[in-house]
Write the structure tokens for this entry.
Amino acid sequence: MSNVFIGAKEYFPGIGKIPFEGRDSDNPLAFKIYDANKRIGDKTMAEHLRFAVAYWHSFCGNGADPFGPGTRAYPWDVASDPLARAEARADAAFEFFTKLGVPYYCFHDVDLAPDAEDIGEYERNLKHMVAIARQRQADTGLKLLWGTANLFSHPRYMNGAATNPDFNVVARAAVQVKAALEATVELGGENYVFWGGREGYAALVNTQMKREQDHLARFLAIARDYGRSLGFSGTFLIEPKPMEPMKHQYDFDSATVVGFLRQHGLEQDFKLNIEANHATLSGHSFDHDLQVAADAGLLGSIDANRGNPQNGWDTDQFPSDLYDTVGAMLVVLRQGGLGSGGLNFDAKVRRESSDAQDLFLAHIGGMDAFARGLEVAHALIEQSPLEQWRTQRYASFDSGAGAQFERGASSLADLYAYAAKASEPEQRSGRQEAYENLINQYLLR
Ligand code: XUL
Ligand code: CO
């Protein structure tokens, strides 16, 4: 077992670099499917999947819920000085990333560094931790998939950040976005995320919705301009979510955000970061929201997790459902990959999962689930009749009057004349069952 740790102390003793052992392995601490260097088509698994670990769930969240305190006592969370705790947390995080073998991580400003109401102190804390993270990245080869600012936890944001009815709060939010953009640029982050945590309303009765949404667009535009002025050439990402914490959130789902970006002329710089459990909260499936974003040319990145079919809230479980991962990877492969985006495990181990090892098991499972999704989606596209069946379903638009209609060269009267000459359309089965059987057949291969 190789001894990989970063700081003075090893936080996950007894666990070495997670190996790939293949499907027949019974070793829980080994990959069964994810083989970073295995080629799938023209890229390796690592290049396709671009996995990232989320700092907040994995190194800050301890399992606390509204009914009780955390169940995990973290050995990096013991020092009395908040900066010393943040430094220890960074050591633990980089040890974990390295042992797991992921290329990327993601953070909020206040995951990485202690928050402070005094602006100078907040900025000093973040700069201090960015310098450490920069060194750790150089030591380990880890990269930053995206940074973001937490504009939803501090009580000042209870009525929203960029959409707050009080300009003083909007301006205070800019302090964090400015600092988080600077941190992201300093660390070579490939994207910058805006999840509109409390950008929405609790009650329409006290809300001027249009005004708030216009403020959001203006805020995003000036944040974009500041990021570009720093030399940030990556993608800005909006992460849709319909509710929780607010009753209604403005970035409701993919379709809403695509419309919002286009309405405000932001679609050149911003794309979408789609989270599985957010899509299901909005009443869609994960692959539906991915497809809507991809069809708009705006699918930028993915927060990989899943909800619970019985619960109507954001359970943020690790992805394990192979149907979900196949569906997601079909969308990703058809759009030619994730570009500068990745698969970020915005997921938390269950409150009942209280061993240090559980964090490894959760990520190993999620990575294997997406690796299998990638293999199956690739085989479905390249080897199975799936794409041919779908194309065939629309064959009547490939030539003649159908093609003329698709080109925009037919009037309603043209369609009338065509229908009047033809007989009653032949019934054509959608064959949903055949498609579903095909997916199962390839999943079992
Ligand atoms: C919350 C959520 C956030 C964003 C980043 O539901 O998904 O963690 O991903 O702010
Ligand atoms: Co998320």
